[in-house]
Specification:
Helix content is 20%, strand content 27%. The protein is an alpha+beta fold. The chain folds into 2 domains: 37 residues, no CATH class; 66 residues, Surface presentation of antigens (SPOA) (Roll). Strands 1-2-3-4 form a 4-stranded antiparallel sheet, with no helix packed on it. The two termini are 28 Å apart.
């Protein structure tokens, strides 16, 4: 980005050679203006020793053994960006996750 662009927008980092870190207060204000914006939330559950044969054999009711204990922390990402850690919890008859740490 050119120096002229930095002069036109005071919110941009004046040090283009260094990583830009937005003020967290400004970032939250920006996100508050976009509550309708869709995003994808994903949980990463490791499954070891899983093969193509296992994949092809999957059907309704199949159980896949994971490499984590039921109390293990599981990373949670929004649009592929790590935002924290969760743990699984049963709520009624549903499986849920509880946020244990936000980054």
């Amino acid at each position: 980005m050119s120096t002229a662009a930095h002069n036109l927008n005071p919110n941009l980092d004046p040090n283009p050679g260094k990583p830009f870190v937005a003020d967290p207060a400004q970032r939250k204000d920006l996100l508050d203006t976009l509550p309708w914006l869709p995003c994808t939330l994903t949980l990463e559950v490791p499954v070891v020793h899983f093969t193509i044969a296992d994949l092809l054999a999957l059907k309704e009711g199949s159980i896949v053994e994971t490499a984590c204990h039921h109390t293990s922390d599981v990373p949670v990402r929004v649009n592929q960006l790590l935002i924290g850690w969760t743990e699984f919890e049963v709520v009624g008859d549903r499986l849920a996750v509880r946020i244990t740490e936000q980054i």
